[in-house]
Design goal:
By secondary structure, the protein is α+β, with helices and mostly antiparallel strands. It has three domains: about 1-85 and about 135-150, Chitinase A, domain 3 (Roll); about 85-130, Thrombin, subunit H (Beta Barrel), CATH 2.40.10.330; about 150-220, Alpha-Beta Plaits (2-Layer Sandwich), CATH 3.30.70. The protein has seven helices and twelve strands. It has helices at about 30-35, 55-60, 95-100, 155-165, 185-195, 195-200, 215-220; strands at about 10-20, 25, 45-50, 70-75, 90-95, 110, 115-125, 125-130, 140-150, 170-175, 175-180, 205-210. Strands 1, 2, 3, 4 and 9 form a five-stranded antiparallel beta sheet that branches. Strand 7 (about 115-125) and strand 8 form a beta hairpin.
Length: about 220
């Protein structure tokens, strides 16, 4: 069977658990999602080895592994989701939540400033909030199988778009140049975030702005 190395693109199938209570916190295997009663659909997980597109401990463990074989490992907090930081536990006025039409309650998890936070307590018009990752400080375990090496360049581009851009744009690859087709005003965004694409794929990255369908229709009507 094939052996994978750093900078290889791979499709990974995995189950991740907290060591403390053996609960699944992430997986892309349908049967495990159903078993754990998680509320999301499984998606293919394509990453580049050695670029920390997975947590550090898992990313490092992938090098030199065999396609199709199942592996298991435990990962210490510092190589997983980090150690807990007491300075990330903060007191916030209750009115800040009420202004956002949120009634905080002890144990509630919600998104603030793009971060998942946990409400520790609510008392006297103040809310104690933990900004640490919910998995910070925890020993975690992974079972994984490398399903295949990914060779198709378009699939590689889409994997990088999912990770770095969090959105998929249309694109074409020609003469070692990767050109994204983006909406008006987005090309600068691609110029800044396109560097990992150049580094990983060895392609020159550019962007062309396309006219929205509504504007096209208005232009034709004039």
């Amino acid at each position: 069977m094939a052996i994978v190395q750093k900078n290889d693109f791979i499709e990974l199938e995995f189950v991740a658990r907290t060591k403390e209570n053996n609960e699944i916190f992430d997986t892309n295997i349908k049967s495990e999602i159903d078993k754990a009663k998680l509320n999301f659909e499984p998606k293919p997980f394509v990453i580049v080895i050695g670029k920390e597109m997975a947590i550090k401990g898992l990313d490092k463990d992938l090098e030199g592994k065999e396609v199709g074989k199942e592996y298991a490992l435990e990962i210490q907090p510092e190589n997983a989701f980090g150690k807990r930081n007491p300075e990330m536990v903060k007191m916030i006025p209750l009115k800040s939540f009420l202004e956002q039409k949120i009634m905080p309650q002890k144990g509630m998890q919600l998104s603030l400033d793009g971060m998942i936070v946990k409400i520790i307590s609510v008392s006297g018009g103040r809310v104690l909030v933990d900004f640490n990752n919910p998995l910070a400080g925890k020993l975690v375990s992974y079972k994984y199988t490398i399903k295949r090496k990914v060779e198709d360049e378009k699939e590689k581009v889409n994997a990088l778009q999912d990770f770095f851009l969090r959105k998929r744009f249309e694109f074409e690859i020609k003469d070692r140049e990767l050109t994204f087709k983006v909406d008006k005003g987005v090309s600068k965004f691609i110029t800044v975030l396109g560097k990992p694409f150049e580094e990983i794929l060895g392609l020159k990255v550019s962007a062309v702005e396309t006219q929205p369908e509504k504007e096209k229709a208005e232009t034709k009507a004039q």
